[in-house]
Amino acid sequence: MTDAAADATVHLVARLVPQAGKADELAHTIMALVPQVRSEPGCIAYLAHESLDEPGVIVMIEAWANQAALDTHAAAPGFAALAARFEDLLATPPSLERLRRIVESFPQ
């Protein structure tokens, strides 16, 4: 990956806190979506994790080729269907944190 491509890459951590009694439903819904999202143009990584500190909380670690790819993902039918269920599944709105990779910028 070139420096320009690395600079354009969008890294994202999304935290999804389920409503009481909805953890399994949220996890199954996310897992059903993962293969579809991974095939989207510009998807570099789309990884679902469950928090060990807060069981039931889903933490998504994502990497997208650029902001346009992430924007396309957000409008894709699969994610739109999930987002439409957030009010029913989540106790709070999703927490999204965009990241910039710094490892390459530090001198050795």
Task: Give structural notes.
Keywords: Monooxygenase, Oxidoreductase. GO terms for molecular function: monooxygenase activity. It comes from Croceicoccus mobilis. This is Antibiotic biosynthesis monooxygenase. It holds the Pfam family ABM. The longest helix is centred in the first third of the chain and has 16 residues, at 23-38. The protein has one domain (3-99): Alpha-Beta Plaits. It has helices at residues 3-8, 23-38, 67-75, 77-84, 86-89; strands at 10-16, 43-50, 58-64, 95-99. 40% of the residues lie in helices and 25% in strands. It contains 5 helices and 4 strands. A hairpin with a 7-residue loop joins strand 2 and strand 3 (58-64). The protein has a 4-stranded antiparallel beta sheet, with helices on one face. The protein starts with a helix and ends in a 9-residue tail after the last strand. It has 108 residues and is α+β, with helices and mostly antiparallel strands. The radius of gyration is 15 Å and the shape is globular.
What is this structure, in a nutshell?
The chain is of the alpha+beta class. Helices cover 40% and strands 25% of the residues.
